[in-house]
Specification:
Strand order of the largest sheet: 8-7-6-9-10-14-13
GO biological process, one term: methylation
Strand content: 5-15%
CATH topology of the largest domain: Rossmann fold
CATH superfamily of the largest domain: Vaccinia Virus protein VP39
Radius of gyration: 24 Å
Bound molecules: S-adenosylmethionine
Helix content: 40-55%
Number of domains: 3
CATH class of the largest domain: Alpha Beta
Number of strands: 14
CATH architecture of the largest domain: 3-Layer(aba) Sandwich
Keywords: Methyltransferase, S-adenosyl-L-methionine, Transferase
GO molecular function: O-methyltransferase activity
Shape: globular
Number of helices: 20
Domain O-methyltransferase C-terminal: 262-406
Pfam family, one: Methyltransf_2
Distance between the termini: 44 Å
Length: 427
């Protein structure tokens, strides 16, 4: 096998007659700039007029314009030091309560006040200044004058623990695993990782534990992870909204007294945010709603609607809810390689009533072309933390067919949202 690294492949100093130093400091795609600017003009009007979908299209166009206009040299700097240091500065700001303090005042706050209000014993003005200047440079706060700052909507969002917890969660469960991926892949000759106990995660964190074993040892990190999961899909199209999946088809026929009267079992459902959303959006739906997860996770499901039942359950064991109308798996299978997914799916299949029960899988289906970075980036997170994956349609079809399921339909909301894969037992 050819080792694709800088040592064995000679460096190229020119391309199509241009020296690399010239390429590196010229815009990446100057020929696209005019067209992108034009579409941004018309999309801005659609956005201002409140047209559905215009914001996301405008955002995509703006992102493309940034990439086209930026020079490769600038792009290198963005990835190599803007993004990692922005993460570190934001996590520091969260630890110090800077976002909470700024958000609780409607006036500009001087750094002299921030340095004393943050609760840190010895936060010097110099440190505060360095933190605040970078937070402003990456738009996490807004500079209003020399050494004074105010909050913006990002500040206000990360002033809230449920959203802020994304940062310590990723620092504590993911960043070292991602950093370990290149060396891991090189050592394993670029084979697709398929063992959650020998993955970049174990290398990055110097542990023998699986991701969930590691998490279970640290109650603070677990709570932060569960918070991240509880807000992770906010603002995206939800399968239970009108125009996505016809929820009515689950409600007819209604669960009857001849079956356990269970409408929906959320397997590995975390703190129950999906069932809460379902109860709010479909208040008249008859049938029991059951939340299953590990006992420690269920203990954190404090805001659960009173009609939702908690049921501790290890999804590798026999499914106690038999013949339910639907079993729901949201962001569960992507945590596991195929062979382990088969072990999660087998007890579900055994519990399902053929021709009646449905399996609903709410996950990304990576498209054949033009996959979005949110999905491909998550794929790399899954590779690093679990030897798991975001799957393509062909991969989903292969996995579900091996598990004894027939896909009835893959329901798609929009390009930015997870799909709903509706299956039944393949008798
Ligand atoms: C990525 S989270 C998804 C949570 C939720 N479904 C969501 O979409 O927000 C995966 C969930 O699987 C749960 N889990 C992991 N191993 C499990 C097991 N053996 N049995 C039951 N749940 C498990 C975790 O506790 C976690 O809540």
């Amino acid at each position: 096998m050819v080792e694709l690294n800088g040592n064995s492949v000679p460096a190229s100093d020119s391309h199509a007659g241009k020296q690399v130093d010239e390429i590196a400091v010229s815009p990446t795609a100057p020929d696209q700039v005019a067209n992108l600017a034009k579409s941004i003009g018309s999309l801005s009007k659609a956005f201002t007029a409140g047209e559905a979908g215009a914001r996301l299209q405008l955002l995509e166009a703006a992102d493309s314009l940034l990439s086209a206009l930026e020079t490769p040299r600038e792009t290198i700097l963005r990835y190599c030091w803007r993004n990692p240091t922005a993460f570190a500065a934001i996590e520091t700001g969260i630890n110090l309560g800077i976002f909470r303090h700024l958000s609780s005042h409607d006036r500009p706050v001087p750094i002299t006040e921030l340095a004393t209000a943050t609760g840190a014993d010895i936060l010097t003005l110099t440190t505060t200044e360095r933190i605040m200047k970078h937070l402003n440079a990456v738009h996490a706060v807004t500079e209003t004058g020399r050494d004074e700052y105010t909050s913006n909507n990002f500040t206000r969002t990360v002033a809230n623990t449920r959203y802020a917890d994304a940062f310590p969660t990723i620092a504590g469960t993911t960043s070292p695993a991602i950093a370990a991926i290149p060396a891991f892949l090189r050592q394993t000759h670029y084979q697709n990782p398929t063992n959650g106990l020998a993955s970049p995660f174990q290398q990055g964190f110097h542990t023998k534990d699986s991701f969930f074993e590691f998490l279970a040892r640290d109650p603070i990190l677990s709570a932060q992870f569960n918070n991240l999961m509880s807000v992770y899909h906010q603002g995206r199209a939800s399968w239970m909204d009108p125009g996505f999946y016809p929820v009515d088809r689950l409600l007819t026929p209604t669960p009857t007294d001849t079956d356990p009267n269970i409408l929906l079992v959320d397997v590995g459902g975390g703190k129950g945010h999906d069932l809460n959303e379902f109860r709010t959006k479909w208040p008249a739906a008859r049938g029991r709603l059951i939340l299953q997860d590990q006992p420690a996770v269920l203990a954190e499901a404090t805001g659960l609607h009173e009609s939702i039942e908690r049921m501790p359950h290890d999804f590798f064991t026999e499914q106690p809810c038999k013949g339910s109308r639907a079993y729901f798996l949201h962001s569960v299978l992507h945590d596991w390689p195929d062979d382990t997914c088969l072990k999660i799916l087998a007890p579900l299949r055994a519990a399902m009533t053929p021709g009646y029960s449905r399996l609903l899988i709410n996950e990304n289906v990576i498209p054949d072309r033009g996959a979005h970075w949110q999905a491909t980036g998550l794929d790399w997170v899954m590779m690093g933390d679990f030897a798991g994956a975001e799957r393509t349609e062909a991969q989903w079809r292969g996995l579900l067919s091996r598990a004894g399921f027939r896909i009835l339909k893959i329901w798609v909301g929009d390009a930015w949202s997870e799909s709903l894969i509706e299956c039944e037992v393949d008798a």
